[in-house]
Design goal:
Layout: E1 2-4, E2 9-11, H1 25-40, E3 44-48, H2 59-66, E4 71-75, H3 83-96, E5 101-104, H4 113-123, H5 141-157, E6 166-174, E7 178-187, H6 190-197, H7 202-219, E8 222-231, H8 239-244
Parallel strand pairs: 3-4, 4-5, 7-8
Antiparallel strand pairs: 1-2, 6-7
Helix pairs in contact: 5-7
């Protein structure tokens, strides 16, 4: 996302999660993208919560300790933590990444988020404005459309499917009164395809309904959405398909 005010412009870049022991080419490409951001960032935010497990041998921790730019460790979900546990976690990360500032927030409750944002503004180096003031993101519309479908895959199928699938926007055609979108959902196995489609197509119909509603709110226009599910065995190791899906770093 992009935040622009008279005195500053902030471009937030959200990286994928780092995979400590990559099993697929997709994981390797994700990790390479994470390391690319280490080279480009003016400020690094390392967002963690009590469920995360890091130690001084973790490659991310080592990279963060080597950075020359400011590093902020952001402990999220403090609304779910007892005071003593939070104090221990703050101490742990202060020792793990000594150069970093530690901030505590609850993103869902907006607790301390204003303080964190103000600190980011204070740390910004002088630089040019890269984007127009009214631009809110450096990502294309297709990215957000695929994210809407991906979000609903998580909501509707929970842990059953989402981590084994990916979404590609095949077609995005804007007409006077409607936007026509065609999307492909790639899965690794036939059984996953059957689950997403559901009995008589009931599950994919619900996925389409929920996704279309959010797309219409986002795009502020009527949407006609077509969803298809394709099986591509070992797609996470397919270089051509990974590039098509945006894993081209």
């Amino acid at each position: 996302g992009i935040v622009t005010e008279d005195e500053y412009q902030i471009v937030f870049s959200d990286t994928p999660g780092f995979v400590h022991d990559p099993s697929y080419k997709m994981h390797e490409k994700m990790n390479r993208y994470v390391f690319t951001t280490f080279e480009d960032a003016d400020i690094m935010l390392f967002v963690v919560d009590q469920a995360d497990e890091y130690d001084d041998q973790h490659v991310l921790v080592q990279k963060l300790n080597e950075l020359e730019c400011p590093v902020l460790v952001v402990i999220n979900k403090i609304d779910l933590m007892e005071a003593q546990a939070l104090e221990s976690l703050i101490k742990f990360y202060s020792q793990l990444i000594p150069k970093a500032e530690t901030h505590t927030i609850s993103a869902i409750n907006q607790e301390n988020t204003g303080t964190l944002f103000n600190r980011i503004v204070e740390l910004l180096p002088p630089g040019p404005v890269y984007f127009p003031p009214d631009q809110l993101s450096d990502r294309p519309q297709r990215f957000f459309i695929s994210e809407i479908i991906r979000e609903n895959l998580f909501l509707l199928y929970r842990e059953e499917i989402p981590y084994s699938c990916e979404v590609a926007i095949e077609s995005f055609k804007e007409e006077e009164n409607i936007i026509r979108i065609e999307a492909l959902i790639f899965v690794s196995r036939k059984s996953q395809q059957s689950i997403i489609i559901g009995k008589g197509g009931s599950a994919i119909k619900q996925l389409g309904i929920e996704s279309r509603k959010k797309m219409e709110t986002f795009l502020e226009k009527k949407v006609f959405l077509q969803l298809h599910v394709k099986v591509r065995e070992d797609w996470r190791n397919n270089d051509h398909l990974l590039e098509r899906l945006g894993y081209n770093q």
